[in-house]
Specification:
By secondary structure, this protein is of the alpha+beta class. The protein has 2 domains: 34 residues; 97 residues, Nuclear Transport Factor 2, Chain: A, CATH 3.10.450. Helix content is 37%, strand content 22%. A 3-stranded antiparallel β-sheet has the order 3-6-7, with no helix packed on it. A two-stranded antiparallel sheet has the order 1-2. Strand 1 and strand 2 form a beta hairpin. The longest helix is centred in the first third of the chain and has 23 residues. The protein is globular and about 45 Å long. This is SnoaL-like domain-containing protein.
Length: 137
């Protein structure tokens, strides 16, 4: 009998916590709040969409500061400014052909730090041809 009393108390506690958590996600009129992405999160989403589409190179470059630095850890290529970044990516040259569909990469994780206004985007490039060589995972 004592074990079942503990079980009932435990279940009531779990139920209370669950209802409290559900109540915190509701507005005063009972409608569930919708999550609105922050300005930074929206900018990240726009960047990812622009990069995936590979249509508007000037818009893509607008996300970067003039003193951007990029280091390709696999191939050892590095850039120290926006002009070098533009030459590195150069979508209009037609050197890149995506082999596995339309997506440039698969998105695995996006970590956003609102206070520092930083984001880490982790993903994997799909197979692609670059200047006649097949690259990718």
């Amino acid at each position: 009998m004592r074990g079942s009393f503990k079980t009932h108390v435990f279940l009531c506690l779990i139920l209370s916590i669950t209802m409290l958590a559900m109540g915190c996600s509701m507005t005063s009129n009972g409608a569930q709040q919708t999550h609105h992405p922050s300005e930074l999160q929206q900018q990240i989403n726009n960047y990812i969409a622009t990069y995936q589409a590979r249509q508007d190179f000037e818009h893509f470059l607008s996300y970067y500061a003039d003193d951007v630095q990029l280091e390709d850890m696999i191939y050892g290529f590095a850039v120290k400014d926006k002009q070098a970044l533009a030459e590195f990516f150069n979508w209009s040259a037609g050197n890149v052909e995506i082999l596995d569909g339309e997506q440039t990469f698969t998105l695995d994780e996006v970590i956003v730090n609102e206070q520092q206004r930083r984001a880490v985007i982790r993903g994997t490039y799909v197979r692609f041809m670059y200047e006649g060589r097949e690259l990718g995972p």
